[in-house]
Write a structure and sequence with these properties.
Shape: globular
Mean pLDDT: 96
Distance between the termini: 13 Å
Number of strands: 12
Order of helices and strands: EHEHHHHHHHEHEEHHEEEHEHEEHHHEHH
Number of helices: 18
Strand order of the largest sheet: 9-6-3-2-1-12-11-10
Low-confidence stretches: none
Radius of gyration: 23 Å
Largest sheet: 8 strands, parallel
């Protein structure tokens, strides 16, 4: 990866009239903005169907995409919808995603388009065949979820929960219509995504995607392949993921995600992980793997516990998995999200993998910790960020951080006569890191109301959307000038 820069903006945060960002004209305008600003990368968040808490990191599938991102205007142009059929309640506030309104209205609209797409459409038939390894199970899973009142698959009747062949055959016949719907919306997303990706490449813009290390406990992945995870004979989870207790959380963090049965994955040559990454690399140009440290060791908590207190660290697959990835996917470009509790073993794994890790300036000035995130400690094989989707905005950080940390930041960045957020951006761009990524909220200088996610908050996240006028020509020129100054321009 050559010296370059990019902007972090989730697809959901794009502007437009559809209640959430889509793959239509607003996405292309943002690509135009990135190109005019001299940016090489558009980093997004996971694009999977959102589940619990509307989080893109708790998806119903590790392979599927979110139907909410399908652009209704394009469906009208394709002759699958009328303009009248797109006029629904998508939420009252254009600056926030109203997931409730989307849930109530989006699928009813998409169902009209799906019914008008012929079953024997050549593109759909080819897509269904190419993606059959995951698409068939995912579509049946979603149809069964709907049939069972959206309950988690753990609460379904045993014949389908345990995937008894006769019960599955009956379900496929009984739910043929819904199964077809869930397959078709994945195809419609794929068709629009491929067109957008081609457009971005024509403009010299590449997409950095994001895949969570863990799957959701309520996902087609574990329902279809429980052998991949730490489960008992009844297909119930035995251990789940989380974080140990610390000064910020006395009980630790109980995420509840299924943990992988790594010995089983080793026996298969990590076939599922290679399939997952191979799929992701057809969707994105670069893949960021969330919680990379879990490959070195992971925190394992008894599934029946209510807190993380009784958890323990267990060894991960380490270079055994990384070596399999290198061998099978030698051209893969991967970014390792190496934030959190980093031991010398985690740092060694990152170095041995060859993947660039992440450097976050908001972590650099904490008076209580050594300055591993100070730019003078960066290495070239890294990605510098002002902040991430889990941080507050940098403008808000100035008001929320300890005053001593702010004083230290201003002194270190020689922040005189400009907003501190601009100094953070300058620090990331000036760093030796080959790639610098700035959240769109920081380029706009927005406050805490534009924060994407508060990790400890169960709801109210993932809602911020930018305004139609935010990606202005003046901002593009400002970004381009700074990009040229620090040798990161898109050639």
């Amino acid at each position: 990866m050559k010296r370059a820069s990019g902007i972090l903006l989730p697809i959901s945060s794009l502007p437009g009239p559809w209640g959430i960002g889509t793959l239509g004209e607003a996405a292309r305008r943002f690509v135009d903005f990135l190109s005019a600003a001299g940016q090489t990368y558009w980093q997004i968040l996971p694009i999977g169907p959102t589940g619990y808490g509307d989080s893109p990191y708790q998806s119903f599938s590790a392979f599927a995409a979110n139907p909410y991102f399908i652009d209704p205007a394009q469906l009208v142009r394709d002759g699958l919808l009328t303009e009248e059929e797109t006029r629904r309640d998508w939420g009252a506030d254009p600056a926030r995603v109203d997931y409730g309104a989307l849930y109530q209205n989006r699928h009813a609209m998409l169902a009209l388009a799906a019914r008008r797409l012929p079953e024997d459409d050549p593109g759909f038939a080819a897509y269904r065949s190419a993606q059959s390894a995951w698409l068939e199970d995912y579509a049946l899973f979603m149809a069964l979820k709907e049939e069972n009142g959206q309950q988690s698959w753990y609460h379904w009747p045993d014949p389908v929960r345990l995937r008894q062949p006769e019960a599955l055959a009956q379900a496929r016949k009984r739910l043929a219509g819904p199964v077809s719907y869930w397959q078709k919306v994945q195809y419609l997303f794929h068709r629009q995504w491929t067109a957008l990706l081609d457009y971005a490449h024509q403009k010299g813009v590449q997409i950095i995607g994001d895949i969570p290390i863990y799957v959701s406990p309520d996902s087609s992945d574990i329902w279809a392949s429980p052998e991949l995870f730490q489960t008992d004979e009844d297909r119930r989870l035995t251990r789940v993921a989380g974080c140990p207790p610390d000064a910020f959380a006395a009980d630790g963090q109980l995420w509840g995600n299924p943990l992988y049965d790594w010995p089983y994955h080793h026996k298969t040559g990590y076939a599922w992980w290679l399939r997952r990454l191979r799929h992701a690399l057809t969707v994105y140009d670069v893949v960021r793997i969330d919680h990379f440290r879990g490959f070195e060791s992971y925190f394992s908590i008894p599934a029946q516990d209510d807190t993380a207190k009784n958890g323990c660290w267990q060894p991960g697959p380490g270079m055994d998995l990384i070596g399999a990835i290198h061998k099978a996917l030698p051209e893969a470009r991967i970014i390792a999200e190496d934030l959190g509790y980093l031991t010398k073993e985690v740092k060694q794994l990152l170095e041995d993998s060859g993947y660039p890790g992440m450097k976050v300036l908001q972590f650099a000035f904490d008076r209580r910790e050594a300055g591993d995130y100070l730019p003078h400690n960066y290495v070239a094989n890294s990605v510098a960020y002002t902040g991430t989707h889990d941080n507050t905005t940098t403008a808000a950080w100035e008001g929320e951080a300890h005053p001593e940390d702010v004083v230290r930041a201003r002194a270190y960045l020689h922040s005189v006569g400009e907003p501190l957020v601009d100094s953070f951006i300058r620090g990331a761009f000036a760093s030796v890191s080959r790639i610098a990524i700035v959240p769109m909220q920081d380029w706009l200088g927005l406050g805490a109301w534009a924060r994407m996610n508060v990790p400890s908050r169960p709801d109210g996240n993932w809602q911020w959307r930018m305004a139609e006028t935010d990606a202005s020509e003046a901002l593009a020129q400002r970004i381009a000038a700074l990009t040229r100054l620090y040798g990161r321009e898109n050639a």
